[in-house]
Specification:
five-stranded mixed β-sheet; 46 strands; Immunoglobulin-like; 2 domains; Maltoporin, Chain A; 768 residues; mainly beta
């Protein structure tokens, strides 16, 4: 944890010491309370209204947005629920109001609220709201607007995996989950722990902003390995597609991926112990301790995984530990602290099995290590009726190592470079400060605005037979952003923009405009029809090597004049509700024109050197289609298909014919699809996930003439059964069809593999 977080810690301790009421319990919700259609609350301004929000099973819901609206749509109060599901609404006057509750993953809840005179219980009147499972297309999401909003309000293409789905899937790392989201194409070099890249809407793999609990975890320049990030204690994953730099800044050219951690929810301490084993010498263990009582909540977790893999030098081990804890400081302020540590080691076989043809032996000694720590401290403030403020500081540090000690597959230093000895290290640190304000004057108008400062500092060094190539970069970046959300009758409009000052490329303005219109209202077999449109620009800052160069063996000259890579993005589509809103079909056409893409140019210097320059251009367009259904609250399903056409429009320095002008972009299939079926009941749950990826251009980069990777279908199964209220058995089967496939040509995917285990829960959840 960096020193800059110290003032936040001191402030938290000071507030705790000055608040003697902090440890007092707010009191549980009334047993068996059901959400009434109308509630009468006595008017006593000195006594607040306490809204308690629960999910369909009765579990408490933290982070829900609670809006109290007067007649005519004027906003009386906006609050967020604590981890124990409570939102404190200031004292009210006599009148008729509307209560609106939005929580990620559920349906919007709107209830009338009548306030009349009369005595009020000590501490305030309590009102229970139970959320419902959302129909497709009506799920509340966070990523589209940076606050809880319905999909139609955000006008963004968001897909998500909730806690129930993640519990069934038991993903080893982020790539095992993200690959099943509509519009996502994941390419992993090998099996567990391999370098995993994400391609969305034809963009490069570094065109996706990745946030863990609001903290950016990409390396400078957008680099991110999805195969090396355990999802221990993850509660939800959202994928927002499209250019989103107006809200999220650099790297958000084609998508934003957000991971949200779970909070404590049980009134008594709850301990969960999980252990499993499987083929290929796979063993996992997890321990989790959580609680939410009074004004405190905490979630402590630790996770461990080891596997030998299916061949030589194919082992992978990962461990992670973390804490997510929060406190309600007073009636208008709360704080949350998060800390997460991950440590992994991966055997790297290198490219050797090309679409079933084994042209090489696996690399016997190459390996990769990564050690990362993320910490953040966040304050949520509600000083006024219509205002909310979020102030956060964070620090993310990563140390990574990739090494090959022996050239066991061939390296003569002159013409053969298949397997040369090397050692690359990187120490990357991102520290920052974030402020976000929200103002809600009317039910149909919301304003979001903020300021972000970030310090990016990194050291890289590549050691090889050519010598050392060290790089050090430091840049301090500032950004201002704003967003206006307007909803009036059938029309919704989102206007957003960001002004960026980056020490590498200077100043840049990034706009976005999106709109939707209900063309047809209706229910029954053919329901409402909504049209959507969005235009935006996206940017990605240069990587440190591109901006600052490196010295040593193969010198790369710095280029302080590099511009950010950009896209101009357009999308248009529609959503059609069917079968009494239980089924929704949506289709979106997208078009991205990528400009100022950075490539390496050799320069006329002795003996050799080069420099990165803005020179390449590319085009990607296609159609995303989704069909989602909800048979009941227990059973949901979804199908998706993405067609993508790409073309390199300019690449004057291409070193491979497959990368030259007129060719398609590598590893972007024309056709890709996903399928999900999830059933969750009280005694058992099951999940079927399918990822289908078509043939796509790829290269072995070794001169063997490999020009494509074959298509494949990956099917995963998961299920659990409650043997006892405190004992659950589960099993997961990945690649259930036992297909032999390459996500990246040369790197065989893992054959059929399974894990089975037990989950023990000690303690009981809060009763309702």
């Amino acid at each position: 944890m960096r020193i800059f977080l110290l003032p936040f810690v001191v402030l938290l301790l000071l507030l705790l010491s000055l608040n003697p009421l902090l440890a007092q319990s707010a009191g549980p919700a009334a047993a068996g309370a059901a959400p009434p259609t109308v509630a009468a609350v006595p008017a006593q301004p000195s006594h607040p209204l306490i809204v308690t929000v629960t999910d369909p099973s009765g579990a408490l819901v933290g982070g829900a947005r609670v809006e109290l609206l007067a007649e005519g749509g004027a906003v009386v109060s906006v609050r967020s629920t604590s981890a124990i599901g409570d939102a404190l609404v200031p004292g009210l006057h006599t009148g008729k109001f509307t209560l609106r509750v939005l929580a990620a993953g559920f349906a919007e809840k709107v209830l009338p609220l009548n306030v009349s005179g009369g005595p009020v219980p000590s501490g305030g009147e309590r009102f229970a709201v139970q959320l419902e499972v959302a129909n497709p297309g009506e799920v509340v999401v966070v990523s589209a607007t940076r606050l809880p909003a319905t999909e139609s309000e955000g006008i963004g293409q968001v897909s998500a995996l909730n806690a129930d789905q993640l519990l069934l899937m038991q993903p080893v790392a982020a790539n095992d989950a993200v690959r099943f989201l509509p519009g996502a194409v994941v390419n992993t070099t090998g099996q567990r722990g391999g370098l995993a890249s994400l391609f969305v809407r034809g963009g490069n793999s570094n065109y996706n902003k990745v946030l863990v609990d609001g903290v950016p975890v990409n390396e400078p320049g957008g680099i991110f390995n999805y195969g090396d990030v355990p999802l221990a204690s993850a509660d939800r994953i959202e994928l927002l597609r499209g250019a989103q730099s107006a809200l999220y800044g650099s790297d958000a050219i084609t998508s934003v991926v957000q991971v949200f951690s779970a909070t404590g929810k049980s009134e008594t301490p709850e301990l969960n112990l999980t252990s499993s084993g499987g083929n290929f010498g796979t063993a996992t263990g997890n321990v989790n301790l959580s609680q939410a009582v009074g004004r405190f909540d905490y979630n402590l977790f630790a996770d461990e995984l080891h596997t030998n893999g299916q061949g030589a030098n194919d082992g992978y081990s990962a461990s992670s530990q973390g804490v997510n804890t929060g406190a309600v400081l007073n009636d208008w302020a709360s704080a949350r602290f998060r800390l997460r540590h991950n440590n992994t080691r991966t055997g790297v076989q290198g490219g050797w099995d090309f679409n079933g043809t084994r042209l090489l032996a696996p690399d016997a000694d190459q390996y990769a290590r990564q050690n990362s720590t993320l910490g953040s401290l966040e304050f949520m403030l509600h000083p006024g009726k219509r205002w909310q403020h979020r102030i956060a500081g964070y620090d993310y540090y990563t140390n990574r190592l990739n090494a090959d000690r022996v050239a066991d597959r061939g390296c003569d230093g002159a013409s053969v470079f298949i397997d040369c000895a090397f050692r690359t290290v990187g120490d990357i640190n991102r520290s920052g400060f974030q402020y976000q304000g929200e103002y809600t004057p009317r039910a149909w108008a919301k304003s979001v605005f903020g300021y972000e400062f970030e310090d990016e500092n990194a050291f890289y060094n590549a050691s090889s037979a050519f010598g050392d190539s060290p790089t050090h970069g430091l840049r301090r970046n500032h950004a201002l952003y704003g967003e206006e959300l307007l909803s009036w009758k059938k029309l919704s409009l989102v206007l957003s923009g960001r002004y960026v000052h980056n020490e590498s490329f200077g100043d840049k303005a990034v706009p976005r405009v999106a709109a939707s219109y209900v063309l047809r209202d209706g229910t029954g077999l053919v329901g409402a029809t909504r049209l959507r449109f969005a235009y935006a620009t996206g940017i990605k800052a240069p990587s440190f090597e591109e901006s600052f160069g490196n010295g040593g063996g193969f010198p790369t000259l710095p280029n302080p004049n590099l511009k950010p890579e950009e896209t101009r993005s357009f999308e248009a589509g529609f959503t059609q509700a069917l079968a009494s809103d239980k089924v929704v079909f949506s289709s979106t056409y997208f078009r991205n024109r990528f400009r100022n893409q950075i490539d390496f140019a050799f320069l006329d210097c002795a003996p050799y050197c080069g420099q990165y320059v803005n020179v390449n251009q590319a085009l990607a367009h296609g159609v995303e289609s989704e069909l989602q259904g909800r048979v009941s609250a227990k059973l949901t399903w979804s199908l998706s298909h993405t067609y993508t056409s790409t073309r390199i429009e300019s690449a004057p320095f291409a070193f491979d014919p497959l990368l030259s002008e007129g060719k398609p972009l590598l590893r972007r299939p024309h056709h890709a699809g996903s399928a999900q079926v999830t059933y969750v009941a009280q005694k058992w749950g099951a999940n079927l996930g399918g990822s289908l990826v078509g043939r796509r251009a790829d290269s072995d980069f070794l001169g063997y003439g490999i020009t494509h990777a074959a298509g494949y279908a990956l099917v995963n199964l998961g299920g659990w059964y409650a043997v006892h209220p405190n004992l659950t058995a589960f099993v997961n089967v990945d690649n259930a069809l036992n297909r032999h496939y390459n996500e990246v040509v040369g790197y065989p995917g893992l054959s059929a593999n399974f894990r089975a285990g037990l989950r023990i829960r000690i303690g009981k959840e809060r009763e309702h």
